[in-house]
Amino acid sequence: MTSLKLGVTLAALGFASTAFAADNQAVLKTYADIAAAGYEDSLITARTLGSAVDALIANPSEETLAAAKSAWLASRVPYQQTEVYRFGNAIVDDWEGKVNAWPLDEGLIDYVDTSYGAENEENALYAANVIANPTFALSGETVDASEITPVLLAETLHEADEVEANVATGYHAIEFLLWGQDLNGTEAGAGNRPYTDFVTGEGCTGGNCDRRAAYLKAATDLLVSDLEDMAGAWAEGGAARAEVMKDETAGLTAILTGMGSLSYGELAGERMRLGLMLNDPEEEHDCFSDNTHNSHYYDAAGIQNVYLGAYTRVDGSVVEGASVSDLVAAQDAELNAEVIAKLEATMAAMGEMKAAADAGEMSYDQMLAPGNAKGEALVMGGVNGLVAQTKSFERVVSVLGLDGIAVEGSDSLDNPSAVFQ
Fold first, then answer.
1. What's the structural domain count of the chain?
2. Global pTM?
């Protein structure tokens, strides 16, 4: 396994080898600049998705549905690279559930297979099917859902009854509407919603095609609006940028908290190791589209971006500047080299997993199947790399003199027996 083979060397990622002055304020500025670029790219690709959704609704066909799916997949590439800004930045973590919450009880939104079931004791809206029902009961009150709007989705449906599985907005609600359920378990195949689910009038399948189109339109418009807010928060004069820049120690703490928590508890633990332990395809991140290998890959890339202070935008340009790497190199060049090597090793392992899925050899949900030794090795390669780099991040925290950093954990890594209790 080599970085060159997988195309994940620093040069291949578009990162320059230029060393910048190791100045705290300059590092924080680069961090904010990369966030601004990442969220702007997420917004740009979400607007492209919106145009593709409009085309699908106006003229449902195999071609327009495929184009909308392609636009959704493209929109995930920049967004996943921004997830490293969670955990350490409250403004991001408080907002993130609007756009990337998972997993979801999809029966809230639309029709589902009978195997899904009609009720769940933990969620009264488990199979509410808002698309089929212009009114429904919520907390003893009747909700008028005759018009499906962004306001209905965001203020009434999303996390209704304070149930986290009631995900009514964001990328995964849109993903479900484009792909439909993936009923293949750990066998090959993603969701297979027909384009006729969006045909109004004669030829409509699944029923309520006009309301399904309205839901898809509302969810996509809301995604664009939410991304506009976050892109603005990191732009010059934005609240997130100001918060990071106002205190050097707090800003650096936010950076290391985000890197460590995404790397360890969230990605290595909750998104990868847990699903493998349970052999459960429902633990996939992009479960309807079978795009999980890409989501994990670009999450890991986002961590590398922040440490190195460089991000390659969707147009191919590079945003770069003073970095955490520069700060560490000035204090301990050997440790900096160790971190860079571990980041590259993680990306190589993630690249192996991604390559297997991209080539059609094995999708991520197939990797989770019991008895799939090769699949387990591919997933654990990424997990082990993420865990190893987090250990080096702990040394970075010490070298930079930062205190009070709490990295998110996961029972799947810290207390595996608890997973099965």
1. 1
2. 0.93
